[in-house]
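Dear Dr. H.,

I hope your travels went smoothly. While you were away I took the liberty of generating a structure for the chain from your last submission, since the lab meeting agenda had it listed for discussion. I wanted you to have the full record in hand beforehand rather than looking at slides cold. The sequence, exactly as received, is reproduced here:
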Amino acid sequence: AEASQGHITVVLLGATGDLAKKYLWQGLFQLYMDQVSSGHSFTFHGAALTALEPGQRLMFDVLKKLTCPPDESPDRCAVLKDQFLKLSQYHQLKTAENYTVLNREIETLLRQEGLKEAGRIFYFSVPPFAYTEIARHINSSCRPPPGAWLRVVLEKPFGHDLESAQQLAAELTGFFREEEMYRVDHYLGKQAVAHILPFRDQNRQFLDPIWNRHHVERVEIVLKETVDAKGRTSFYEQYGVIRDVLQNHLTEALMFLTMELPANVSRAEEVLQCKLQAFQSLRGLEKNSAVLGQYQAYASQVQEELQKAQDYISTTPTFAGVLIHNDNLRWEGVPFLLTSGKALDERVGYVRVLFKNRAYCTQSETLRDAGHSQCKAKQIIFYIGHGILNTPAVLVSRNLFRPVMPEGSWREAVGQSDLHIFGQPLSDYYVYSPVKERDAYSVLISNIYHGRKDFFITTENLLASWGFWTPLLDSISHQPLRLYPGGVENQHLLDFEMVSGEVAFTLGEPVEQRLMPDDYRTVQSKFRQSPLVSAWSEDLISQLASDIEKAASRTVARSGQFHLALSGGSSPVVLFQRLTRHHYAFPWKHTHIWLVDERCVPLTDTESNFFSLHNHLLQSVRVPYFNVHPMPVHLHQRLCVEEDRGTELYAKEIMALVANASFDLVLLGVGTDGHTASLFPRSENGLEGAQTVVLTESPVKPHQRMSLSLPLINRARQVFVLVLGKGKHDITTLLSRVGHEPRKWPISGVSPSSGQLVWYVDYEALLG
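The corresponding predicted structure, in token form, is as follows:
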């Protein structure tokens, strides 16, 4: 006791569950073997809802099967195992009183042994719905004494989407501080994944010139499984492959590859900040960013295990391929492919960075060795495990560079193997594998003990990831799934390709495959006596983008230029993204961009309509600088002051450049109160009169706005009104019934005097 650096209490909740049996007890035993001579003493408390005697029996059945690494002597192994069993005990933790009793027992034990508690680890190997109640009990009656640390370990899933993750995070932060929480993504304990950042750091001299869009052709992050979801369908039906694997494991690997390197890769806070910046530069995902599949036996497994009816159709994907783009200067244009699935042809995980090859070799390849042949593929592979190598490894093409690897933990594989990986013999690579292969959970439990937060998911990191994936998950909830038989029989069914920033299966849908009901047809009719285009939102945006391009091309052919006035708000963002990625023939060079309205904030403010327009459209297309016309809301270092005459300036600019002050096309939206542009119900300005540009007041912040007036909008050749989402259903229904009452509903006053008005309304807004 005198020599002890303090006592560490480990409490494993869910001690008799699957995860505990397979990995956690073995990981805790490994921690004890590694640290038995460190000066800390330990006790291990297994806990579950099961009553004392059966729980004890179940737990000790697992403990008796614990094993030592091959390099441990049998005698020492037997002694350590015996000690570990003596230091382990079982508790039933069901009520608040149970936690109080556990705390009292820990304190009594420490007092009897004369030990001071250094820290306490609670490992939550339980379903997330139980987290809050357990957290409340620990916080109220089971915290360690002052001066000792608390580490609470949480297993995924951490929510189902952004909203549920935010809710769970808010509940937990009511009981624990951020530094006390260790969210586990066991992929961060995989040796090849954990080495991505150190590898980049130690090989900066080689990677700095080539780790960018000029040299990297593509990146693949892949986790394939041969097993199916049998026995786990209740979990899988809720989550599916994207939530189970891509949103966490594969995204973390993506971050390690794409983030800027911090000065110190061992400082958790620096790593987190770089990761969050990397999340911000990811381009938003759309429905066509993913291909989805489901193995054929899945539906019947769900029907059997969850007692579903025979006609039950599951829309849960068991396979996904997702194309991700990063819009920062380093990675712009490089495709990142994330792929995972069950019932595939092999079990393997890898991260593959394939470099562009600019060489042409005149001499025959047979006359060269791999190290000097610039025509062979150049790649770096972080091989996570299983597959043909059956071990974690780092492989670097010999025609790239000989990497720097830490000698104590990685060693070069010697001996030429006849194995081939990605079409090349192993001899074409420098191959390194761990000196000592370690299970991911052993690595992570060791990191929890050492307080290494950089191996765990912080709340900010978690919410950034869910923020990125949730829009895709929402958009694909009704997307058709490609059925596949499973295993080697899949043949080419799941092959997919990248086309114009999207992905699609290479083979057409086989005739015998089940298709989802086809309710994506576009219907045309009338709305408020004007043409109506209606469809599901993505198809509607596609149609609208095409119609704008046609209008632009026709106008440029007729008059040499196209004057387009665009509204702010969230609805046009998806349109802007569609225009940048699919409409390469758009005559941007001859297009003038005007704003329909602007908030009275600096143009660099995220609330600014121009800021959104710049981020989602202008920086991706080639509109001449002088053809961009932001509203002058910020003059003389102040915002929207009448004496500065910003409205007059804009009106004069329009009169000078736009023939008859008649825009070729004005794009409008509709607010839930019937406002359009920044013309609000009962506005003092802009609904009538001679003024063309006005200052108005919004009922919501920021209150001050600048807007084109209704008379100016009505001089346009064409006006398109875009209405999206269920939230607009009530106002859409109301507008279908009311007449021309702009003071009540400004949008009802939109009626081009000699132009055309077209409504683009999605099914959710139209039908609810």
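Two observations you may find useful: The first strand starts at residue 6 and ends at 13. The chain has three domains: 6-155, 189-361+368-404+432-437+461-505, 544-767.

With kind regards,
E. W.
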